[in-house]
Amino acid sequence: MSHEIIQPTHFPRAKGFANGILAQGRTLYVAGQIGWELDGAFAARDLPGQFARALDHVLDILRAAGGAPEDLVRMTVYVTDLAAYRASTRTIGEAWRARLGKHFPAMALVGVAGLVEPLALVEIEATAVIPDAR
């Protein structure tokens, strides 16, 4: 494995994310992805649906670079409504597990007042490290 999870011994165990990941390989920076369809329309008007679609876009970019979901080492998720995110964690978790299984990169969740696209409820930025052997 080209990634090593870094967990200081005095930290509590991370749940649903990693505190740090040490990685070797080619670095891919994925710009913020929102939950729209390729024609520019939003099929989903709810946060979980947009989260799933934004995550699909991140993974499409990752695969286009020759990577795999387990190569994601860092993600920042921006949401316009933290309460809606918290209320949707079960559905969001299902979307996550369907795409990434039990892999969790170092992550941050940030509440924002709004996103550039007025209908966007979530935006995901990501960093992946793709092993040189691929």
Profile the largest sheet.
4 strands, mixed
Q: What number is the mean pLDDT?
A: 90
Name of the CATH first level: Alpha Beta
Return residue spans where pLDDT drops below 50 for at least 5 consecutive residues.
Answer: none
Strand element count: 6
Shape: globular
- Trace the largest sheet across and list its strands: 3-6-4-5
Please provide the ordered H/E string of secondary-structure elements: EEEHEHHEE
Radius of gyration based on Cα positions: 15 Å
Instruction: Give helix % range.
Output: 25-40%
CATH superfamily: RutC-like
Q: Distance N terminus to C terminus?
A: 12 Å
Strand content: 25-35%
- Secondary-structure arrangement, i.e. CATH architecture: 2-Layer Sandwich
Q: Please count the helical segments.
A: 3
Structural class: alpha+beta
The tally of domains stands at 1
CATH fold-type name? 60s Ribosomal Protein L30, Chain: A
